Amino acid sequence: MSVEYNKENPMPVPTRYFDYEGYWKGIDENKLTLQKCGDCGAWCHQPQPMCPDCHSIERKWEEVSGKGTVYSWVTYHESQEPSFKAPYSVVLVELEEGMRLISNLVDVKPDEIEIGMKVEVVFDKIMDEITLPKFKKV
Ligand SMILES: [Zn+2]
Question: Which residues contact 108 (CB under 8 A, 6 or more apart)?
């Protein structure tokens, strides 16, 4: 994997907030599952209690393709967080379904990243209880 973690410094781990329940349950099963409005069908990412389009509180979780393109990225040459070893890149991936996710690329050097690069989700088990969705070049 391309993000190298500094094992001497504990890394911050995501909090599994209630609104993200379906997202993390999908990740646990190596599926990228995003929130969709149960009434109008609009995608809602980041997960939230109410649909931003129709204000419905009916929500469901639906697996997405995991395929997309790099919409933007930034490479950190100095680590902002002691548990991440620089250089590392953070990407904004636009999924085929239209939502955008912040993540990391695996096995891609920072100078190889391009806007529009086709990518696909992979699941990186960074610790026993935490798996993160990341993306690889396709
Ligand atoms: Zn809606």
Answer: 2, 89, 136, 137
